[in-house]
Amino acid sequence: MAADANEFLRKYIREYGYFLNKEIERNFKHITNTDEVDRNRYSGKLESCFQELSSLDKYALIFECLHGTKKIEDWHRQFFNYRRFLGNKMDEYKISGRNEELKNLLSIAQALSCIDRFCAIVLSDNGFHALHRQYQIEIARMSREAYNMVIDYIMKGDYANSDLALSDIIEDSSNSKYLTQIKNDLQCSLSKIMKNTQILAHSLDGKIEQDEDNRNKIREINENIEKIRIVLNRHRIMKLMDEKMKKDLQNFENEINQIVSKAILNGLQSIELFINVNHFLEAEQYMKNLVRAQRELADYYTSKLVENKIEELKTRLSTLANDILQRYDFEDINSYTKNPPRDLLDRLKKVSSGGYARYTQVYRSLMEKIRVNFSLAIDQVCDNSSRDRSAKIRSIKHAFYFLPDELKTVFELQIDQLNQLNTNEQQLIEFD
Fold first, then answer.
1. What's the per-residue H, E or C state across 183-213?
2. Percent of the chain surpassing pLDDT 90
């Protein structure tokens, strides 16, 4: 009976030893699993199980029965090997800059610090706590250096490198002050960029079609839009932003598009106005400036409405020469006072000499039309009866003042002859 009781007790002790060993193994695996997010819950259990196993050495027979010495020696060896592996891996991650992985291993070292007191024989003063402390100090140093780099990059507007440098700041309570300052500096910097870009975009209104060189403004607008795009695609930076700033960043490009669209549409209206009042050179030059500006903005600005309006106006300009020929025939010299041919031809001459050769033929054609029509009017006066001739001569003389200088030279002699004819007829009337 006593023998059976002893055997039952031995079996129970061995099973209990097996249970403790499996619990130590289970908790150790959880702690060393790199995907584990809550190691603290397993750290306490590991400590209590190892404490229980170690404390049984006070009972020699029980300890011998559950093979306690062998189990503890095996765990000492495993902990020692893992401590060496963990230290090497942390060195590797530090050198390669894999800070997220390093932070994870630091958490493992902290969780395993609970077993240092049971492994003093093999770990001595170089246990998991010492490893955790060593790298905690190292990470604090790296975080300070990274903080200075991030702030410097922010001042330069280099947000891509700011985001990279942020990866060297491991998020924990000791580094919260760095992250708070970085957040403030980032938001101030980004707010300034967005505000300055809006000012630049507004400054194009009324000037985008006038200035031949808006390139500096447009280049800065493009660069700033690109910076905001970079920020929007950088997870670490966006994680620091508050909700209002995130919304402002997300809406920024659309706001700039609206401002630029308004500037371009207003520019197109100005060009249409110049066309309507026959300021052809200004219309052509402004259109050239505006199209160039749109092309320089192309990678960062799109508007189907604006594109269609530009194409419509480009088409109108391309057919303007023919439209002028159809609109003006100058057959009625009495209309010259209302629509002076001199003004139209001066502007055609101006646009032709300004580098737009297609207007040259229009200029020549209209000059010839006016010459023929004016010559015909003079011939008709000469054929009229003396009763109507005086009024016709006055009409021709009045129209003569609105001819271009080139045609005035051509008709000057004939006008003098008409004046003389008119004078002679007046003298005859008085004599009669």
1. HHHHHHHHHHHHHHHHHHHHHCCCCCCCCCC
2. 39
